[in-house]
Amino acid sequence: MKNKILGRIAGVFGLRLAYSALTFLTSVLLARVLGTSGFGAYTYAVVWAYLLSVPATMGFDNFLVREIAVYQTQSLWGLMRGLLSWANKVVLVSSSALAAIAILVAFLLDGGAQSEVFVGFCLAMALMPVISLRNVRRGAMKGLHKIAKGMLPELLIDPLILIVLTLAAYAVLKESLTSLWVVVFYGLGSLATLALVSQFLARSLPEKVTQVPAVFKGRAWISGALPFMLIESIPILNSRLDVLMLGAYQGTDAVGLYVPVNRGAQLITFILMAVGSSLAPTIASAYSDNRLGDLQRMVTKGVRVVAVVAFLFAGSLSLLSQGYLSLFGPEFVQGQTALYIFCVGGFMSTTMSLSYVILNMTGFERYTAIVGWLAIGLNVVLNAILIPRWGVEGAALATSLGTTIGAFVCLVAVRQKLGVDATILGLALKPPTVEP
């Protein structure tokens, strides 16, 4: 089991590392090709699609991780088949409806104007069903313990397609290349990776799943998935609210300046995603089997890996901040102070945020939803106060404070509810004080 977990972490870590490198290269390329305004317009459109895909997915992507892992452990093949079928149908309908509503609202607010930002937003909304269905299939692959394989299309193939198509188009169009073209390329990559992860899932399902009739528990699944939607919204909103509010207060030029800073912060947190994704199904299985000692040991090792890697990235990024930002262009060096803020805040929140995964996989997802949404409310208030006053630096400070406070509260909750120490200390296990 230990070797399997380490193998999963290594695989996902490698993918996350490659994804971070490719995302960095993509950001540099788009910043150089489109400039701050065009880069900001593209980012603004894609961020909205990424953000709205969370309610469109209705939490089924993360709900599937836990339920598929449990169904496989208990050989409940009919329920597994029914859940996969039900989740795909529900998400297709919800994502299509939400995309149509978002386009209509944008049209009414924009007065029908065909600006580059508006058209890019509409193109991104049309991609929402594709992104949402891809997320569902990725969640099912995680539940089957095929974590790296399920994440491969999104983390490796998708950014490669965007880079190749952008370079090819720039070779032909030169300065005529606009953000709308890049949104189209983003959509082509999403379609290709949806097809690929669907094929992976079909090949990874246990043979018995296709040999039994589907069993449906639609109402129970909806009830169980919705808290995951609220939970999944938390890190996404915390990492995207600053971009959206910065665009609302100071325009897409400020967004273009801020995005490289935000990308740098993501380099600090990607280890958390790698470790959290790898441990999530194993945490669910260990808790369901009442193996709390095993749970404590894997959590302690996971947190220590996260803390060490996050510290190395935060420290390196602080020392190399000017050189890092200058890669995007000389005008982007203005974000250096904001990057310093993110290095400190990102390290602090990352070392505590594995507690979210632990609570989600042990039946306390409603608690993390409440805490997370309170943190988002704090994030909104802080952004509204600090962005008008300090601009890019205010957005970085507000986001860092909101995410750190939320992670600390969940860290305390893991100790109180499970008796598990989710810090680097890994103190002795105590009995849980609250039953799930």
Could you give a quick summary of the protein structure above?
The chain has 436 residues and is mostly helical.
Tags for this entry?
436 residues, 15 helices, mainly alpha, disordered C terminus
Q: How is this structure best described in words?
A:
This protein is an all-alpha fold and 436 residues long. It is 84% helix and 0% strand. The chain has helices at residues 2-57, 60-73, 77-110, 116-126, 128-143, 147-173, 179-204, 218-250, 252-288, 292-319, 321-326, 336-352, 354-361, 365-390, 392-418. Helix 2 runs antiparallel to helix 3 (77-110) and helix 13 (354-361) crosses helix 15. Mean pLDDT is 84; it is low at 431-436.
Largest sheet: none
Strand content: under 5%
Task: Please work out how many helical segments DSSP would assign.
Answer: 15
Strand/helix succession: HHHHHHHHHHHHHHH
Tertiary shape: globular
| Helix fraction bin | over 70%
